[in-house]
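Key idea: predict the complex, not the pieces.
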Amino acid sequence: GAVVSQHPSWVICKSGTSVKIECRSLDFQATTMFWYRQFPKQSLMLMATSNEGSKATYEQGVEKDKFLINHASLTLSTLTVTSAHPEDSSFYICSASRTSGINEQFFGPGTRLTVL
Amino acid sequence: GNSVTQMEGPVTLSEEAFLTINCTYTATGYPSLFWYVQYPGEGLQLLLKATKADDKGSNKGFEATYRKETTSFHLEKGSVQVSDSAVYFCALTTNSGNTPLVFGKGTRLSVIA
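Result:
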């Protein structure tokens, strides 16, 4: 149990376009999902915390108008990178926290975004 | 605030060598501690965890003991394999609500045959 999927696993897009990444908890309900960004050979940087039915909480320095997060249900959160630029190229990872029990997060496999 | 410090890599070991990756933390209250592993091109997988002082997490031959007195959670394995080559992240979170994980910078391990 406790499987989190991400789609797509990789995407290449042109500069100026928007890209949507989905994060789904497949076999549990997740009131909270987190979005991280990882640069090559670096640690994960928390971008935002997403709670079902409410606005996401963004970390300092993360542009909320550029990285749109929607958490419409207890099993789905989406991250949309708007007007993508090459510097947005990165590995985006989501995680989901169960509604009950120990505060443990389950990670998706990540989405590699390349902006040309 | 909460923070995690882990030894910088890369670490290169021969197969069957003993592995230690140091991790210390700073936190308010009593955090839960985790080790995650990331294989090339993949997301993070939980390797082991400990939720209170003196707990020992173990999985796949890896162990780590929650040491409150030294605020440490060092990762150890008695005999590494080539397949253990990956990046290892130490992390913590508080038990109050759905708070995000705080990660260390990661330690890259390469095991050579």
